[in-house]
Write a structure and sequence with these properties.
The complex is a heterodimer.
Chain A (H helix, E strand, L loop, with lengths): L4 E3 L2 E5 L4 E6 L6 E7 L5 E8 L4 E4 L2 E6 L4 E6 L8 E9 L2 E4 L3 E6 L1
Parallel strand pairs in A: 2-11
Antiparallel strand pairs in A: 1-3, 3-8, 4-5, 4-9, 6-7, 7-8, 9-10, 9-11
Chain B lengths: L4 E3 L2 E4 L5 E6 L6 E7 L6 E7 L2 E4 L8 E4 L6 E5 L8 E8 L10 E2 L3 E5 L1
Parallel strand pairs in B: 2-11
Antiparallel strand pairs in B: 1-3, 3-8, 4-5, 4-9, 5-6, 7-8, 9-10, 9-11
The chains are: A mainly beta, B mainly beta.
Chain lengths: 109, 116
């Protein structure tokens, strides 16, 4: 079974707006990762946040982690049409990754 | 450099047939993973190799599924007596090493399997 749940399942915004996606997970973690997937195929690693970090930035991406609530959020600022994709959070367990159910983001030009 | 490659990109088969899906990891990556992704879901772990051996096959759904990595590089996922419920995208990933702490995996484009 999958570890996490993303919220919302789908999000549609206008280009230039910010997009926020949330992820909840169930067990203790060392880190949490966010991935992007275009057209249901290969995933691309976006950013990793360690359990002792609360916030991390990478370009237009901002990730937060609240280990007390077992939740994380991914913020994409100044969205572009090219950001249209599915976004997944993933938590490592042993040597494997457990993925959430994903948020489908659509950015309307 | 070359990323993870998977062949075929699409496979259509009939119920009851046998299929093989191939994964070429990034050169030098010792860890290799197989995932299965159904429509509208996140990837689900199937099996993990460290070198030639299957270190964790707890995600394989049943004994119709088997995977090998005989030389510690290319891996083949084998599905016997396919069922319609096996239809999904099968993703392969590799990583430089499996640390259990930080584990960035690089994914291939996947093989879309359709069982008619």
């Amino acid at each position: 079974s999958q570890q996490g749940e993303e919220d919302p399942q789908a999000l549609s915004i206008q280009e230039g707006e910010n997009a926020t996606m949330n992820c909840s997970y169930k067990t203790s973690i060392n880190n949490l990762q966010w991935y992007r997937q275009n057209s249901g195929r290969g995933l691309v690693h976006l950013i990793l946040i360690r359990s002792n970090e609360r916030e991390k930035h990478s370009g237009r991406l901002r990730v937060t982690l609240d280990t007390s609530k077992k939740s994380s959020s991914l913020l994409i600022t100044a969205s572009r049409a090219a950001d249209t994709a599915s976004y997944f959070c993933a938590t490592p367990h042993g040597n494997n990754l457990f993925f959430g159910t994903g948020t489908r983001l659509t950015v309307i030009p | 450099g070359a990323g993870v490659s998977q062949t075929p990109s699409n496979k259509v088969t009939e119920k009851g047939k046998y299929v093989e899906l191939r994964c070429d990891p990034i050169s030098g990556h010792t860890a290799l993973y197989w995932y299965r992704q159904s429509l509208g879901q996140g990837p689900e772990f199937l099996i993990y190799f460290q070198g030639t051996g299957a270190a964790d096959d707890s995600g394989l759904p049943n004994d119709r599924f088997f995977a090998v990595r005989p030389e510690g590089s290319v891996s083949t996922l084998k599905i016997q007596r396919t069922e319609r419920g096996d239809s999904a995208v099968y993703l392969c990933a590799s990583s430089l090493m499996a640390s259990g702490v930080y584990n960035e995996q690089f994914f291939g484009p996947g093989t879309r399997l359709t069982v008619l």
